[in-house]
Amino acid sequence: MEGSELVQGEMRRFTWEEIGQRNGRGPAPQERWLVIDRKVYDISRFCRRHPGGSRVISHYAGQDATDPFIAFHLDKALVRKYMNPLLIGELAPDQPSFEPSKNKKLVEDFRELRATVERMGLLQPNHAFFILCLCHILMLDVAAWLIIWYFGASLVPFLFSAVLLGTVQAQAGWLQHDFGHLSVFSKSRWNHWVHKFVIGHLKGAPASWWNHLHFQHHAKPNCFRKDPDVNMHPLFFALGKTLSVELGVQKKKFMPYNHQHKYFFIIGPPALVPLYFQWYIFYFAVQRKQWVDLAWMLSFYIRFFLTYLPFLGVKGTLGLHLLVRFIESNWFVWVTQMNHIPMHIDYDKNVDWFSTQLQATCNVHQSLFNDWFSGHLNFQIEHHLFPTMPRHNYWKVAPLVKSLCAKHGIEYQCKPLLTAFADIVHSLKDSGELWLDAYLHK
């Protein structure tokens, strides 16, 4: 009989030490267990069939996953039915409900905040808001075509149309983000259906690719080897104080990191979408046999070229598409990285959900422009704490989050938009200097 296992026929009991060893990397690498509401589940085989992807659920192997489970799923009762075959036991009576290393009072206070959010109806969407978002995207898309149709293909209308289409891509990116997070409809499948249309037909990207990467980011933000958004370390950038010093001590130099705050302007905002995402999304869809996503993607490119080819020709249409991707890329990178790169980046330390999100995210001041420009991701803290919350409600929960931070002495960072942009560059400069010092002297 295993350590804390009870007699046959009764629920098996486990300690946190036993669970922590089943993380896919310890003495039993083939086993992955996690805990939800004191119940212990064996996800070793299920992780490959997990609808959200194998990696996002595996990132919590050996850990308590109660808070992310609540945060990510809409119909929890339905999901629990599918989890029943995975149930192998529960925590022993003398074991706390989550790892002893976590802040008990903070975990309890956040769960109370979550209950308050649900009672206040802040997880309920205003469908008119999202209809208006979609309509303004479609109107901009039509306006871009009308400009070329009416004024011709000379330089000024060409550039003006490109700016409008770049705006369409950025705003459609924020809208697909809403559907991807299940923030618009009460049924997951309805969100998935519209998500494929918005990201596939309006943007030309696969929903499966976004899901695969983005949920990992939310599960373990800024955790190296778990958050794909920091995978640019160490091949292109040295990120975070701890990781940069570690890289220097190991005498690793893939790039001149002490100049990364300069070459960021070359290989960062201008290049990410047109030079990387543009081809990788097709590779992803074909390699993973996501044929429905591929069909949606192709519908975007067919529509785009049929729309502009008669006015611009092949070279002009290709040039327009490249310019639109360039505008979109700059918009996307500055907005998405302003909340994360300047924050704490390290290996996963398995801290509580609230602390995990607060140390990896910061906010930007609220204004009508900032809300629109960033798709309400200026409320990145609230978004990360409550990923299924409709974005029009972030401002309502923000005071409650601030209050909880103040109670527990946790910094709640909120800054002006341009300061947030500048902090990306400053943090890259600082981590590059830390790497150089360690590389030369340690």
From TrEMBL:
Assigned GO CC terms: membrane
Pathway participation: Lipid metabolism; polyunsaturated fatty acid biosynthesis
InterPro entries in the record: Cyt_B5-like_heme/steroid-bd, Cyt_B5-like_heme/steroid_sf, FA_desaturase_dom, Fatty_acid_desaturase
Superkingdom to which the source organism belongs: Eukaryota
TM spans (from-to): 263-282, 294-314
GO biological process, one term: unsaturated fatty acid biosynthetic process
Keywords: Fatty acid biosynthesis, Fatty acid metabolism, Lipid biosynthesis, Lipid metabolism, Membrane, Transmembrane, Transmembrane helix
PROSITE patterns membership: CYTOCHROME_B5_2
SUPFAM superfamilies: Cytochrome b5-like heme/steroid binding domain
Residue ranges constituting the Cytochrome b5 heme-binding domain according to the UniProt record: 11-92
Molecular function as annotated in GO: oxidoreductase activity, acting on paired donors, with oxidation of a pair of donors resulting in the reduction of molecular oxygen to two molecules of water
Descriptive protein name: Fatty acid desaturase 1
Native organism: Serinus canaria
Record gene name: LOC103822124
